[in-house]
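Q: I'm building a small set of examples for a reading group on sequence design. Run inverse folding on the following structure and report the sequence directly after it, with nothing in between.
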């Protein structure tokens, strides 16, 4: 059985979308990160970072949203939502799945914190080159791999959706049309509804 340690106001919200795309059964374990429950011993035992999401698949524990995405797609949708290792699409699939947490996320934090750094010494380079790269990755494509939706869209596209929602990205036609294509997917809508329902049940926002 798959268990997702979850809070609707966390990256775990996006993992629900991944699970809905797969259509596998799963259960949710609510971790009240607003009250510090992510630092409880049973959570820290699984993720010493004391953070969610954490995914348990029987005895397998996976943390890090992008790793969870790649694990789930390889395990439950190889050749469908994850290109097989000998598929030429596998390279771009991994490239853009890693780009989100290793380039976009730290780059956005660096930008908003006003930190000083040498672009040649940080993985995200300059903010401008990062934004131009995100845009070039989706320009002229329906999804990050072209016409074919993949789990990389949950990672990369999930980050784009988040950034647009919190106005961290200019709402250009390229970004908004990509985010809208993702948002209308039935799995994304089920996930959004589930996250909203859980937030309501816990008296959040
Ligand atoms: N790199 C991790 C980041 C996980 C993370 O930062 N989780 C946040 C919520 S989105 C959290 O648990 N924050 C509570 C805390 O750090 O105490 C991932 O991609 O999953």
């Amino acid at each position: 059985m798959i268990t997702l340690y979850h809070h609707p106001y966390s990256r775990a919200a996006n993992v629900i979308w991944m699970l809905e795309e797969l259509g596998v059964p799963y259960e949710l374990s609510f971790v009240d990160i607003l009250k510090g429950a992510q630092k409880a011993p049973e959570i820290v035992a699984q993720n010493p970072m004391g953070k969610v999401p954490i995914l348990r698949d029987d005895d397998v524990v996976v943390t890090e949203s992008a790793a969870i995405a790649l694990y789930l797609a390889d395990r439950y949708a190889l050749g469908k939502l994850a290109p097989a290792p000998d598929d030429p699409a596998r390279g771009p699939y991994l490239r853009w799945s890693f780009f989100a947490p290793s380039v976009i996320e730290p780059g956005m934090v660096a930008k908003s914190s006003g930190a000083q750094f040498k672009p040649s010494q940080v993985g995200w380079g300059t903010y401008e080159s990062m934004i131009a790269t995100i845009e070039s990755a989706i320009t002229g494509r329906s999804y990050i791999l072209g016409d074919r939706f993949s789990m990389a869209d949950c990672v990369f596209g999930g980050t784009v959706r988040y950034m647009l929602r919190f106005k961290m990205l200019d709402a250009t036609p390229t970004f908004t049309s990509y985010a809208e294509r993702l948002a209308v997917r039935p799995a994304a809508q089920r996930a959004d509804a589930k996250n909203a329902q859980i937030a309501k049940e816990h008296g959040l926002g």
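The two ends are 30 Å apart (CA to CA).
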